[in-house]
Amino acid sequence: MSTSRTERVVSSMVLLLFALQALVPVLYIVVLALSSEKIGDASWGHLDNFATAWEQGHFSQYMTNSVLIAVLVVCLALVLSLMSGYVLGSLRPRGADLIFYVFLIGIMVPSEAIVLPLFFDMRALGLTDTIWAVALPQTAQSLAFGTFWMRAFFRGVDPAILEAARIDGATDARILVSILLPIGRPAIVTQVVLTFMWTWNDFLIPLVMSPSGRMRTAPLGLAFFQGQYTQGTTLLAAGAVLVALPVVLLYLVLQKQFISGMTDGAVKG
Amino acid sequence: MTAQTTPSATARPPRERRRLSTRRSHVVVSIALLALPVLVYALFMLYPLARVVQLSFYQWDGLSLGTWVGLDNYRTTFTDGRLVGAFVHALVLIVFYAVLPLAIGLVLASLLARSQVRGTGFFRTVVFLPQVIAMVVLAVSWRRIYAPDGLLNSGLRLIGLDALTRSWLGDFDTALIAVGLIGTWVSTGLVTVLLMSGIAGIPKDYYEAAMLDGAGWWRRFWYVTVPGVRAEILVSLTLTVIAALKTFDLVYVTTSGGPGTSTTVPSYEVYNQAFRLGQVGTASSLAVVLTLVIFVINLTINLLGEHER
């Protein structure tokens, strides 16, 4: 279908305006972060705001917590999903579908439902305020998605390849590591990126599971920074940029995979 | 594969034996590999899910012994003005998070998907950006935009609409709408990108046939585009309706449910009841109801999708 010149011009304008409105709140916070803290001072480009915010907002501790939790959740969820996905997608023993549906429920369960008993039960065991209290519930949530995601990938692998490897005497572990992991790279990267983003941006579980604030993550640190620091918005904005930066950088580098991962996950989920 | 379909008489016994033993070893390997994932999932997902249902039948402050109260907490959930209000607010948010973005997304996507404009890759990256940024960060930004001396009021003053300026998040009349519009802003990009990929999959012939039949823009939109993206519409609705129901960090950071109770939402009330008011039972029943609502929405939309096929 050929499109007229005017139609193309109008479309481009709409595209530009829509992209602009999506960017304005994001750019606004970046502009604020780089402006001067002093009222009436219109100078710009204050990179030192980031250092001050980092210092005053205790972001070195919160970022460390966030990195540790994210790495733990991403690794655990990936390894466990590969195991469950391989069994439910490739080996398919009797009852595999039933187990799969039970995992599927987990994708729908909101954090609000599991966080209450988890908090009280883990408090009784003296486990709140530990990294495990925050990371294990998040691992279970990511595992629900990961099982679904990896099962779909393993189902898509031609069984003839696995059959051939088995006839050559390869064990299940060997098949998983030498054959399936290399062909599964795109699926694995997508899962890593998505679970990293979900874990990094999560709010409710770290808020509830670490009442003392010892395991406070970067987004939580920002919320509390806002509570204490009502005066200057420049430092708050600088803190906000710091919190968003890791995921945004990852997004910009892997945006193709990110978008297809989000939309594929959405369409299948 | 060929080995299985044409077994020779002499080779049969050993092959049969091997297949039997692989099947048995499959079961062993399956159990070994599933043990850890199932354990983690059961301990941190299924068990708490069962426990929250149990807790919802008790009155408990989180410290002393709880007392069995049967369905009392559910009665409270459905009659207490504050809690019912939270669900009403959630319904309003669904309009802002799901319905509005869908309407905007349909128009935008149908405008954009078929006109070969440059830069759609850049566009896709940009409109998707709000999806990846932590809600806390977006909330901090929007709080500044809505502030008395923020971007929105400055803009209104610039065009001479001083009378409209106000503290958007602090005003009883506008707080919920202001929160809702943040949701609209976040969702619209996702919905548009989903719908654009759906429209790209509609065969061109459909549009050409419709044009030959003399169908105008509206009729092509309504009879070709909308039915062609039914699946994408269902997915968009599932994602955005659930996002609306699970709004927590946005409310926590922008309004804390205020002013008054004008922006409380169910998930905020779960937190508030359990950890500020010491009503763990009520919080649990609220969480159970919220979970059930999400399940029902998912099932309904999936059934609609099945029906389609």
UniProtKB/TrEMBL annotation, chain A:
GO terms for biological process: transmembrane transport. InterPro entries: MetI-like (IPR000515), MetI-like_sf (IPR035906). Pfam families: BPD_transp_1. The chain crosses the membrane at residues 12-34, 67-91, 98-119, 131-154, 175-200, 235-254. It is a multi-pass membrane protein. GO terms for cellular component: plasma membrane. It is found in: Cell membrane. SUPFAM superfamilies: MetI-like. Residues 63-254 form the ABC transmembrane type-1 domain. Keywords: Cell membrane, Membrane, Transmembrane, Transmembrane helix, Transport. Its main location: membrane. CDD domains: TM_PBP2. Belongs to the binding-protein-dependent transport system permease family. This is Carbohydrate ABC transporter permease. It comes from Actinomyces respiraculi.
From TrEMBL, chain B:
It is found in: Cell membrane. The keyword Membrane applies. The chain crosses the membrane at residues 27-50, 86-109, 121-142, 175-200, 221-245, 285-305. Its main location: membrane. It comes from the Bacteria. PROSITE patterns: ABC_TM1. GO terms for biological process: transmembrane transport. One of its GO terms (cellular component) is plasma membrane. Keywords: Cell membrane, Membrane, Transmembrane, Transmembrane helix, Transport. Belongs to the binding-protein-dependent transport system permease family. It is a multi-pass membrane protein. CDD domains: TM_PBP2. Residues 87-301 form the ABC transmembrane type-1 domain. This is Sugar ABC transporter permease. It comes from Actinomyces respiraculi.
